Structure formats: structure tokens, C-alpha cells
Amino acid sequence: MRAATADLFATPLIPGLDYQEALLSEGEEHALIDRIDSAELSPFRFQQWTGKRLTHSYGWRYDFESGRFSPAEPLPEWLMPYRAKAAHFAGLGPTEFVQALLIRYDPGAGIGWHKDRPVFEHVVGLSLGSEATMRFRQRTAKGFERIGVPLAPRSIYHLTGEVRHDWEHSIAPIDQPRWSVTFRSLSTRAMSWRT
Asked: Of 10, 12, 1, 4, which Cα lies nearest the Cα of 159?
């Protein structure tokens, strides 16, 4: 697996992948972690399987047990400054991010290989707490091409285009607590379905 470093992101390792360290101050990070821990987090469920990470969705929710996409409670005011930062980083308007997912990873928790659901388009994540590795893989004729990207505390990443649609990603389990906030926009198909 090839490892990425922050200075390599001047030329993205995968088209559509952008990354920046130190988007948030330490004070903003601590305040956001406190907000996440105060939210009504529940274990992630996929069909009959229960994950180690705890989550809460705002705006829209995808139920992995039923396969349904449905409205959730609105994004709270305390998330708006972070949504604005995420939108500015991605070059989008803040109102384009209509979904936010809070996650707390307790020691040993991670996320398996996946692509975000097709109802979503842009995916922007804030990484808090311990450093983690975001892994990317794409099937080739010889197997998989793999790239590992370290996510520093208080960093941000943006997935769009090729990396969003043609690569899977995962988060390797770590031994220390980690938190994240992921903002997503709706795909054109989902927006037309919604109206």
C-alpha cells in the first residue's frame, strides 16, 4: 500500500481527492467532540450486523437495514459554522450540504470497504481526535490498486469525481478514540427524486 503525505496533495494521488491539515483549531476540535458526544448516538447497523462505531444523522438518513432513504431531523445550528468551513474547502455553497453524519469510533472501531450511497454526491469529512488511515482501493486486471492516506486530527478531506465513484474507501481500526463529521450533498438523481 502506498502512503500519502500532506505535501503530495498539491497533485492528488487520486483525481477528486483533496485534503488539508489543521482546518480547525484545537478549541474548535474539542467543542465539536463535546457536541458529538452529547448527541443521541446509536450503534451503526447493517442488516443483522451491529458495528462498533456510534452514529447520528441529520438532514437525511439512509437505513441500511431497510434500504430506505428518508428525511431526518434538520442540521442543528451548532453544525452550521463547520458546514460553512467544509463548503468553502470544497468550493460549494453551504446549503448544498443537506446531510451530516456524526461518528464516534471507540477503540477497535473502523469502517469496512464501501462507496457512499449513490443518493449522495460530494462527501466532505472532518477528522477529530486520533490520527487514522483512510484506505482507498480500485479493482484492476491484476487485483487491487491500494493507497493509504493519513488523516491528521483537525483535518478535512473531499471526495468527488473519480475517487468518489470509482474507488472504495475504508478506515482502518485504531486503538484510540476518534470522531468525525461527514457532510454530503445530494446527487442529481436524488434531487430530482426528492422534488
From this structure: 12
